[in-house]
Amino acid sequence: MSEEDLCRRNREGVEEERRDDRPRRVDHLIAFLREETALRFAEHVVAKNYGVDGIEVADGHWRVRFFRYDPPCDMDAVTLDLLRDARDFGGTYERGDKAGVSV
């Protein structure tokens, strides 16, 4: 799925909430093949004002779980930025969750 397609899909899930632009916690998950890369990525997102919930390994992938409080109207830009960061680090953006809605 292209970055633009993922953003379009995300937009469909949050249109109703866009009317309320109060920041909400949005959880993200990005997977990597190597622990070292996951650790470097965790440092990268901390520098971008995200909080890291942890790094776990399962099924041969190291997954970085992190979050930040963002308003729903910013989700397209946030998701696109994270997709590009994941690509630049050699990882895969697996998901983000906001108020029980997959974005």
Question: If you had to describe this structure to a student in words, what would you say it looks like?
Answer:
- The protein is an alpha+beta fold and 103 residues long.
- It contains three helices and five strands.
- The chain has helices at 3-14, 35-47, 75-88, and strands spanning 24-32, 51-58, 61-70, 92-98, 101-102.
- β2 (51-58) and β3 form a beta hairpin.
- α1 packs antiparallel against α3 (75-88).
Summarize the structure.
The protein is α+β, with helices and mostly antiparallel strands and 103 residues long.
Order of helices and strands: HEHEEHEE
Helical percentage: 25-40%
Main beta-sheet strand count, sense and barrel state:
5 strands, antiparallel
Q: What coarse outline follows from CA principal-axis ratios?
A: globular
Termini, distance in Å? 14 Å
Note the beta-strand portion.
25-35%
Give the radius of gyration: 13 Å
Number of separate helices? 3
